[in-house]
Structures are given as structure tokens and as C-alpha cells.
Amino acid sequence: MLSTALNVVASIPSPSVSYIDLGPLRIHFYALCIIAGIIVAVLMTNHRLTKRGGEPWVVIDIALLAVPLAIIGARIYHVLTHPGFYFGEGTDPWAVFRIWEGGIAIYGSLIGGAIGAWLGCRWTGIRFTSFADALAPGLIVAQALGRFGNWFNQELFGLPTDVPWGLEIPSDNPAFPAGLADGTLFHPTFLYEVIWNLLGAAVLLWAGRRFTLQWGRLFGLYLIWYSAGRIVWESIRIDPSEIFLGLRVNVWAAILGVVLGLVVMIVQKRRHTGLEPSVYVPGREWSPTSTVQSQDSTDFVDTSAPSADEDAAGTATSTLAAK
């Protein structure tokens, strides 16, 4: 009895509201968490790209394509992996479009966002691998912020638990498992992922500097770190999910993420023995004294010996701007 009382005192309460009404406008905290994450990711990516010679705020041009496609991809992935929520007897197919009610998937956002980022990089001349590496730390921080949306929505929690940091879920919540006693606590998987992701951001920033991870290898490390944690969190979640070969579909996606991250790091390490000569593809370099990108720009000088990758590409440019 005493143990139960102590656990309840130390437990994590769920927010009593998930939105606020401003006149006719309803603002969902879930959406605010996602928007906050996008802003942080853009700011961090902009800082990292400009440090390497990128045009200030070129990330905005890329985000104009990447963010909408990431959201669309996230929703499509969620719907495809939870068809019982939206199709069949007793369901409302129009709920597919009510994204503010929750229901987006990280791996879907990565697929859609990658397509949008690739198109944005083609548009701006930014090297796709440079952008991916610049994005990685900010992306995992954004995912940490986005998980607070699950807390506000009282969703995607884990197995019942008696740990002091258990999450309180009202018994009248539709996601509350039938047959459990009122007051049952659950693993706060949102909090586990927040902590894991913020720790991952620190690891990515350190590893990027310590080992000079370029050519997409830092993004590969992101995939490994994030997906390894996701395998654990997904394994203890109790929300409905499609099951394949005994595992939740997102566990399989996380396993694939780890494998893909390893492949990216190994292949890119073998393919590129030198450092990226610029965050821009050859011929698209940006000059701080002109808005016109020109391969013959005199504002960029080569201050280092050509790397193996530069020789292969037939270029020997540098991203160091001389004033």
C-alpha cells in the first residue's frame, strides 16, 4: 500500500487539455510541438551550413519542399500501417485528413522529407550529403520536442509499470487498456525517447567534430542512434499496430533504419577518402558578394591540396570565402 502511494506521488501526470481555443481558432499543442521542432531544426541546420560556407538561410528554400513532403509522408505511412483506424466497419475514412488529432510516423516523415530535401538541394545547389549531415543534430532535437505532443494527446504510452516515474492515464481514455484498474501507471515512452534523442544530439555534435563525419556519414550515425532507441521504445508500447513475423511494423522499420545507417557509413567511408570540398556541388558555389552563383566566382579560393574526391570530380574548389 505504501509503495503504491509513493509511486502515485512521484508519477508523471498527463495534461488535462490538449488544445486551446482562440475565438474560432483551435490550436492543438501537438501541432505546436511539431512546429517548435521544425523551427529548432531549421535554426540549427542554418548555423551548421553557414559555418561551412553555405548561403545564410538557404535552408529555408530547402525546407519549403522538405517540410510539407515530410508531413505528407508521415501521415501516409501512419495510415498505411494502421489501416484499421480509418477503413472498415465503424470507421470514418475522412479521419485520414484530420492530422491534428495525431497520427504521423517518423519514418514516413524521413522518407517524404528526404525526397523534399533532395529536390531542394537540386534547386539550391547544396550538396545533398552536406545538407543531411548539417540537419542530423537538429532533426533529432526536433523529434524530441515532437514527442511532447504524444504527452499532451495522452497517446503512445508503454506497458503498465510500478516505477516511480510511471505515466498517469485516465481510465476513461479510449487508449486505456480494458481490464486494468483505475490508477494504473504506464511507461512514459515519450519521455524515454526525449531523453534518448537529446543525448543523441550531443553524441552527433561530438562525433561530427571528433571524427569529421561528412559525405552523409553523420546522418548515417543519426539513423543508427535514433533507430536503436526506437527498437526498444516500440517494443514496450501497447497502442495498436500491425504485426509482421511477431514484431510491430515500426520495430521492423527501426531495424531497417539501423541497417541503412550502417550501410551509409561504411559505403560512404570507402567511396570518399577525402573531405567534402564544399557544401555546394561543383559549379553552384555561392559568393557572399553576389546572389549569382558562378563557378568562376573570385570570392572562393582554393587554400588546400585537392582531395581524392576532387580529383575524381575534376574540380579543385574550396568553400573558404575571402574578403
UniProtKB/TrEMBL annotation:
Transmembrane region(s): 27-45, 57-77, 97-119, 131-149, 190-208, 215-233, 245-267
Transmembrane among keywords: yes
Biased composition (Polar residues): 287-306
Coiled coil: none
Compartment(s) where it occurs, according to its Swiss-Prot or TrEMBL record: Cell membrane
Ranges where the record places region Disordered: 286-323
Positions that bind a 1,2-diacyl-sn-glycero-3-phospho-(1'-sn-glycerol): R147
Molecular function GO labels: phosphatidylglycerol-prolipoprotein diacylglyceryl transferase activity
Keywords: Cell membrane, Membrane, Transferase, Transmembrane, Transmembrane helix
Enzyme Commission (EC) number: 2.5.1.145
Membrane topology: Multi-pass membrane protein
Pathway(s) where this gene product acts: Protein modification; lipoprotein biosynthesis (diacylglyceryl transfer)
Role played: Catalyzes the transfer of the diacylglyceryl group from phosphatidylglycerol to the sulfhydryl group of the N-terminal cysteine of a prolipoprotein, the first step in the formation of mature lipoproteins.
PANTHER family noted in UniProt: PHOSPHATIDYLGLYCEROL--PROLIPOPROTEIN DIACYLGLYCERYL TRANSFERASE, PROLIPOPROTEIN DIACYLGLYCERYL TRANSFERASE
Assigned protein family: Belongs to the Lgt family.
Protein name: Phosphatidylglycerol--prolipoprotein diacylglyceryl transferase
Organism of provenance: Microbacterium fluvii
Gene name of this polypeptide: lgt
